[in-house]
């Protein structure tokens, strides 16, 4: 390619409009979730039906802290207040991270794993494939895909480890707000 052709190609590329992703779906999802800020909901384990850690325990989510670019949702399993789902918005794309704490508030060794959506998703569902940090921290989780569904009645948190039988799903009932729970471990009221 000659210098003349290179300059012509460069000029054409600069003149082309930038292709931008339509982020209206993720923004709609974000706004719907944010409308629940300050509310708590009870739910149930849907999958796996027999689970020692979650089965038969009271499951509560509290959309506790919302800012322009971050939503923190503590997730309580019985008396265990160690988990918080953290969603962030960056240029219309959502990221899901998991914050795990000990009862004294210190971080768990396995903490802040998760992933970033590869696109804007849909207003009722967002997918989060495991990121590099997660793969390095938890090698078996390299094929994890988390997803959250959201509609007028339910919020579901889901996990599938592709290539394995591992699957997890909790369904939270958004039609019946409950009394606000105590602060999760590591938070100060």
From TrEMBL:
- The signal peptide stretch is 1-20
What keywords would UniProt list here?
A: Signal
Task: Identify this protein by name.
Answer: Secreted protein
């Amino acid at each position: 390619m000659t210098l003349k052709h290179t300059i012509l190609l460069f000029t054409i590329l600069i003149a082309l409009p930038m292709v931008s992703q339509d982020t209206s779906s993720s923004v709609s999802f974000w706004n719907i979730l944010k409308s629940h800020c300050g509310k708590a909901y009870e739910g149930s384990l849907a999958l796996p039906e027999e689970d020692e850690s979650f089965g038969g325990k009271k499951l509560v989510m509290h959309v506790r802290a919302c800012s322009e670019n971050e939503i923190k949702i503590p997730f309580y399993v019985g008396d265990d207040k160690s988990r918080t789902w953290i969603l962030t918005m960056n240029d219309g794309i959502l990221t899901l991270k998991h914050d795990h704490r000990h009862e004294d508030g210190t971080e768990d060794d396995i903490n802040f794993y998760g992933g970033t959506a590869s696109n804007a998703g849909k207003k009722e569902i967002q997918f989060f494939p495991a990121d590099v940090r997660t793969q390095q921290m938890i090698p078996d989780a390299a094929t994890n895909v988390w997803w959250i569904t959201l509609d007028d009645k339910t919020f579901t948190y889901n996990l599938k480890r592709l290539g394995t039988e591992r699957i997890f799903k909790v369904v939270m009932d958004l039609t019946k707000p409950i009394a606000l729970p105590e602060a999760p471990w590591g938070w100060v009221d």
